[in-house]
Amino acid sequence: MKPHLSRRDFLKLSALAAGGAAAGATVGPALLGESMHFDSLDSYWAREQPARNPALAQALQVDVAIIGGGFTGLSAAWHLAQAAPELRIALFEARGVGHGASGRNGGMVLPQTPDESMQIDYDDATHRWTYNLTVGSMEALAKFVAESGMDCDLRLKGYLNVFTWPEDIPYYENYVAQTEKMGLPLQLLDAKETAAKLGTDVYHGAVYDPNGGSVHPMKLIRAMKQMAEAAGVSIYENSPVLAVHPGKKVRLEVGRARHLVQTPTLVLATNAYTSKLGFFRQQLMPVHTQCLVTAPLSDAQMTAVGWKSALPFYDSRTLLYHFVLTPDRRLVLGGGHAQYFFNNGLEFRGNLSKIEQAMARELERVFPALADVRIEGVWNGVLGVSWDEHPAVGVTGEHGNILYALAYNGHGVNLAFLFGKIIAHIYQKKSMTLWRYASFVDYPLPKIPPEPFRWLGARAMLGYYQREG
Predict the structure, then answer these.
(1) For the chain, what is the largest distance between any 2 Cα atoms, rounded to a whole number of angstroms?
(2) Where are the domains of the chain?
(3) How far apart are CA 214 and CA 266, in angstroms?
(4) Which pTM does this prediction carry?
(5) C-beta atoms surrounding 95 within 10 Å
(6) What is the pLDDT of residue 403?
(7) How confident is the model at residue 464 (pLDDT cuts 50, 70, 90)?
(8) Would you tell me which CATH number, out of the four given (3.50.50.60, 3.40.50.2300, 3.30.430.20, 1.25.40.390), belongs to the domain 37-157+215-282+386-448?
(9) Quick one: average pLDDT of 134-141?
(10) How sure is the predictor about 380, in pLDDT bands with cuts at 50, 70 and 90?
(11) DSSP letter string over 80-103?
């Protein structure tokens, strides 16, 4: 067991807290109806968002319809088009591609699934297989970017998981010893070695993984959009799907005019937004987290910071912080705070100014030389979080014609690209022996308690972890 609770532990305890609340509470009037909401996209990455395509302006019949223009949707579209060029594939994005979590994250690219990240959730064989699979996915992503001819600031030279407390050390010593027996390339660093790589002495050691790194998320979105369209995919932006009617032929109502789209196969690539379409309401929580970006660091600031390795890193807290240094020498700091809003709420109702102050304090704690650095912005994003930290990709619906990929729990950049490939394999009805160790294929996501108990439990536990950090 880790010395401090993981997100999985948080979610389980949230459910227990919710259960306790349920025992002494009476459910009141009917809950508010669900509604789709899209906060404005004001991340640093958004400066590279591509120009939007025209919205859907007519009824349409296609072989595959994809809802969502983030990493998942674009990856699924490209992989499907590569596998079967004759397919008529249409992708519908409510705003512009990358508007959701794909254009708001901290820019880290990580191996492993969240349930197997720095912990052995099943057994050694599954852990080793999942690690190698996700490393292979990053290699495929690098090849994809190279083929696009676009610079996405993709750097895959490794990352660090740093220890916030000395009590963390025994757990990670044991974990690295286990992975060494599996042939995985992880290395345990002491406090001095960690400080030499990062230029800060606030951590008590780290696990160094040579696989992983960082990317400019919106530049990657640009490349993915270009590649999908070149493969023949039709992308409609400013085209929100307002209703989904399952059946042997799925019917979609798209845009204000509610244009009818009919398709024998639907792909849900909406992650945290999925419940608003009527799917996975009880299995997925939209959790809001934030990122901060500084102005470019000067030569003097770079020297003072001493972050010579430029390796991205994240800490061992439950509500962890993660740090990325961009090629233009901006520091992106993410995490540290998380909020859940009633009824799977997608609208951010928190206080960004207060969160910015807390994040600035953490930045100064880790890098005192940046106490006066100019902060250019703070933005909010929404993660799709499952109860047990498990991601899922598979098929749902009475007719087995609705494909989905979701619940990345903060590991979305690499997993979304991989899950797009798996969606293409599922569609083609290829042999699934390739995924024999893949617990995430058709994984039955467990249910999370309904409202109002979900909100009560999440609020109690998030408040606890905020005080812990």
Answers:
(1) 63
(2) 1-22+159-210+285-384+457-469, 37-157+215-282+386-448
(3) 31
(4) 0.93
(5) 19
(6) 98
(7) low
(8) 3.50.50.60
(9) 98
(10) very high
(11) HHHH-TT--EEEE-SSSTT-SGGG
